[in-house]
Amino acid sequence: MGVLFDLGVSSPQLDRAERGFSYWSDAPLDMRMDARQDLTAAEVVNTYTEAELVAVISELGEERFARRIAGEILRRRPL
Questions:
Q1: Of 46, 73, 9, nearest in space to 63 by CA
Q2: What is the pTM of this model?
Q3: What is the rounded distance in angstroms from the CA atom of residue 23 to the CA atom of residue 55?
């Protein structure tokens, strides 16, 4: 028996540390699916207000603990 996950990222995104998706490398937190976009994950976690983080995490991530996660992000800044 096995489980298949579609994480929405590809091997090249995970393998190239500079893309900011890697779990294995220490690299800037980028995570842009389209590198032509300006907004990075680092900017989101370091500049968004708590309310903005809660909205992103709960609406886009469908995470029920969004407020707790946002609070922890704020506590650990800068990330």
A1: 73
A2: 0.71
A3: 25
